[in-house]
Amino acid sequence: MQTPDRHLPILLAALFVAAAPHFLRVPVWITLWCLGLWGFQLWLHRKNRRLPKKRERLLILGLGLAGTVATFGGGFGLRQGVGFLLVLLGVRPFEVSSLRDRVVTLFGAFFLVSFNLLASQSMATALAMIVSVLVTTTALIHINHPGALPRPKLRLAGTLFLQALPMTLILFVVFPRLPGGLLGFSDAGSTTGFSENLSMGDVSNLAQNPSPAFRVEFPQGLPEQRLLYFRGITLTAYSNNEWVPVTQEMADQGRLNVDMAAPSPLLGADQITYTLTMEPHHRKWVFALDIPLELPPEAPPGTEFLADRTVMLQNELGNSRRFTFTSATRYEFDATASGAFRARVLSLPLPPGSNPLARQLAREWRQQGLSDEDLVLQALDMFRTEEFYYTLEPPLLDPESAVDEFLFSTRRGFCEHFASSFAFLMRASGVPCRIVLGYQGGDVNPLGEYLIVRQSHAHAWNEVWLEGRGWVRVDPTAAVAPSRIVLGPQSALSEQDASLAAPLMSGNDWEFLSRIGFAWDAVNYYWSQWVLDYTSERQKSLFSELGFDSDSPMLWLHVVLAAMGVLALVGGIFFLRYWLWRPQPVLDPAQRAYSRFCAKLAKAGLVRPPHLGPRDFSLHIQEERPDVAPQAKEILDLYVAARYAGKDTDAVLEQLTRAVAGFQPKPLSASP
Length: 672
What we know:
With 672 residues, this protein is α+β, with helices and mostly antiparallel strands. The chain has 23 helices and 17 strands.
């Protein structure tokens, strides 16, 4: 009868710790598969029950593989690969019966640990990987040395980890960087809540998401909160209650030639320089303080300004990345710039027949002889003076008449409701208008003196075209809830809505958790700055500061030689510390006497073999030097009595010392 392997508990512990981070990324049934099978195997181990037979194990494995194929189909990627490996490792402990099987199982755990970096490169992932490596290494030591206690094995695993750390750091600094991120892979763990379209209700869903979208450092000092508009996407086309960006294809269908890459020149503007670190969102756009004046120097090739002054990458942003922008918080567009007329015309069309009440209101305003600027003020005054409410729980609206329902019935909405209805009113009255999606405001981290812009700071506002001024930012939400712009989104919510965006707890509890949150965010921020954002450009910059010629074709040879020199220096220091300058063991009197006795014999030509103890050494002397054997036996018997017997130690030590002093063996050549 085959029973579970005696090392099964430590193997299962290593597998569980390595697999735990992946349980959040794979289908629930795979998590239950692993936990169920591992729990069943542990139960068999404790009850000393027999393992399933080979046919039964094959049936279990077949069911798991069939479930994997049914879940993932023919596609293969990180999620599919991790799921497949977990299914195999769920069954693997059934097969363990030898040292080789145990080692193979633990190497499967190491594979699981390494897969974490492909999914996320955050500080939390790094800490989880360190714990997993320590536990798996401890298990590897245990299966090779099962007799020792667990704590020394864990200490040894930690020692091995620390010994490998210097080499790891040197390789991190000098190894050529791959494009993309820490390892050249995209971080699948983060994403933005924005898509490339907007319907009423989209942005309000983000208000309950506190995860960071990006962080910003302002060396010249933080601007006023009301100026913190971070521009991301401009939405110009409108259809079926949905706003989308204008593409060249859409412009062609409207028989309008639009230069999508043409920037809009700016006239005089206040300028501010800042560094923005974006979390990976797997989109092409980059958020920048309204309004960016130039592309950042760190922008990858292919990055461009679109005509609406948004920044677009050539490839999706799959890793944390830093950008240094210069923006104008107070600005004025050049109304005569190239492309201005085309952009203005694109910001006028509305689908025919939709929202008749809003169209009628816009016509009445226009018939009053109001100018474009007065029409803007009229709409803002309506939002400010009439009963409109800023809320996280707006009612559902009919897509065919969403603007009418909002303006004349429900009057409860989030920023996208006000921006969408304002844009409709402006276009219906003949004022070019578009919607800008981005973020407004942020939380200052007092531990790092930087701004955290969260998903909950997502915002939608408008831009209208005014003659002689060009595009002008208008935020209708500020007319309804001005505290939203000055103090942040939660300040403008009712108590009921605020409880949805933040946990219900006392002020002291919230302040304590807030401090912890800021501390953890600061750790993650600096991890991103110093580790994840260590790109090839920053690596070459570091080499230049260290005196290397970053443009030299021999750069990497020089760096490798320098790294080898550093390693040799560190190795030499450790050698001197632990070998040449190591402290000598302190010998007790009996050991000192025994050492003198062995030294006299060695000088006489008889060296003690290191594997022989005192009694075996006595027999060895009897064979090799019978002439000194009686005296040597007396000395060795005294040494054993003084060292191990523990009786009359002082008297025995005195006899031992006198006997060794009187022991004068002749050299081997002079013996009879």
